[in-house]
Amino acid sequence: MKKILIPLTILILFITNASPLLSADPAAVNLKVAFIGDSGAGDNFQAVLNLIKNENAQIVMHLGDFDYDDGPEKWKQMVDATLGTGFPYLGADGNHDNWDSDGYAAYFKNKLSQIGLTPPSGNLPSSYAFAWQGLKFVVAKEDGDPSFIESQLAADNHQWKICAWHKNQTYMQLGNKSNEQGWPDYETCRKYGAIIATAHEHSYQRTKTLTSMENLTVDSSAHPLLNGIPQNQNSLLVAPGKSFVFVSGLGGASIRNQDRCPPAAYPYGGGSGCNYIWANVYTSDQQAKYGALFITFNAGGIQNKATGYFKNIAGQITDQFTVINSQAPPPTVSAGVTLSLQPSGGILPGDANKDGKVDGVDYVIWLNNYNKSVNNGSVSGDFNLNGKVDGVDYVIWLNNYNQ
After folding, report:
1. What is the pLDDT of residues 360-380, one digit of tens each?
2. Quick one: 186 and 172 in the same domain?
3. What is the Cα–Cα distance from 84 to 344, expressed in whole angstroms?
4. Within a 13 Å sphere around the CA of 19, how many CA atoms are in the beta-carbon half?
5. Over pLDDT 90: what percentage of the chain?
6. Last residue of a domain, which of 303, 325, 347?
7. Which residues pair with 282 in a beta bridge?
8. What does DSSP say about strands 337-341 and 2-6: parallel, antiparallel, or unpaired?
9. Is the per-residue pLDDT at 327 higher than 80?
């Protein structure tokens, strides 16, 4: 008879709560955010705005390069006429933007007031932060501001955190951009488990889960290797020390090609500067059209789950993924209550996919079946074989994590 040691407090938490990994500051249920950048103020941008409205996004984070030479007033009028003057629409300063003189600082400051927040006095700086509906946004200025990011995330209690800025590092995009934002911004956000949203390169791409941005290290617990290639590219994990990056720069200005990490189809490149970090790429080489990335937080009422998809203005979905958030790393399990169970066939408890180790992939299987009645045991996350996937099964997974 296999003995599993479970701390009493953890066991009580997962038996009495309906959702796993509860946070002191969760996002609103099914909160949908649209991410775009590099728009201009022409017909393409109007089509993207219409898409955002039709997809029922509740807030937009525009990742810089607003009007180019089309005029800031035209750009603002397009946003307000399509989405409404009180719609939550915030942005990051881009290299083609005049943050203060073109009135963007005043525009976004007014947006913060309209959604019930208190902006800083004076002009809104291009590094600013706000929390809305349980989401924490940290917007960084061009060319990096790691000390500001650190000050905003170090003591933050929000489960879901988003870092947003315009520019890139060469290895964090697939065009020809140079190292402009600086690695400290990326690594500080990763340290606190914040999703990293960028634009600047006029295409779309998304990484797998990374445990080092600068070293291009893919998280092996989320993406186990098969023939040297990290798998499960559409199942992401965020936690202290791990996150992912995306570039969403198809807001309407132009569409560029894939200059790095060939081939133009998955798994993309594994060579120097690539390391198979890319999960999805959408450029002119993939016949890209303009569009937006949509991420829904607290998806289906599961506080630590988010779902994302990129949709173009032709109605095609070209990327879909799930994000699981654990804002505390798996704790060290001490002696506590003893739970007995008989695993079937000698399978390691917590090993849902039977690959001989208990890792993040098994957690995702458990989460996808959470609160369901099942009849196939551990392969669905029912590790104590009682016919239901519940919090006790989570604790069994936790006690065997990394085994």
Report:
1. 788 878 877 877 888 888 888
2. yes
3. 57
4. 17
5. 74
6. 325
7. 204
8. antiparallel
9. no
Q: What is the CATH number of the domain that holds 305?
A: 3.60.21.10
Instruction: Return the pLDDT at 293.
Output: 99
Number of residues that make up the chain: 403
How far apart CA 71 and CA 101 sit, in angstroms, is 12
- Report if residue 26 sits inside a domain: no
pLDDT tens digits, one per residue of 329-364: 444 334 443 443 444 445 788 898 888 888 878 887
**Which of 16-30, 92-106, 142-156 shows the lowest mean pLDDT across its residues?**
16-30
Residue 391 domain flag: yes
Structural domain of 360? 2-21+329-399
The residue out of 325, 355, 380 marking a domain boundary is 325
3-state secondary structure the chain: CEEEEECHHHHHHHHHCCCCCCCCECCCCCEEEEEECCCCCCHHHHHHHHHHHHCCCCEEEECCCCCCCCCHHHHHHHHHHHHCCCCCEEECCCCCCCCCCCCHHHHHHHHHHHCCCCCCCCCCCCCEEEEECCEEEEECCCCCCHHHHHHHHCCCCECEEEEECCCCCHHHCCCCCCCCCCHHHHHHHHHCCCEEEECCCCCEEEECCEEECCCCEECCCCCCEECCEECCCCEEEEECCEECEEEECCCCCCCCCCCCCCCCCCCCCCCCCCCCCEEEEECHHHCCCCEEEEEEECHHHCCCEEEEEEEECCCCEEEEEEEEECCCCCCCCCCCEEEEECCHHHCCCCCCCCCCCCCHHHHHHHHHCCCCECCCHHHHCCCCCCCECCHHHHHHHHHCCCC
Region 182-191 average pLDDT: 99
Q: Are 366 and 389 in contact (CB under 8 A)?
A: yes
The two structure tokens encoding residue 340: 């007995």
Contact 107, 92 (CB under 8 A): no
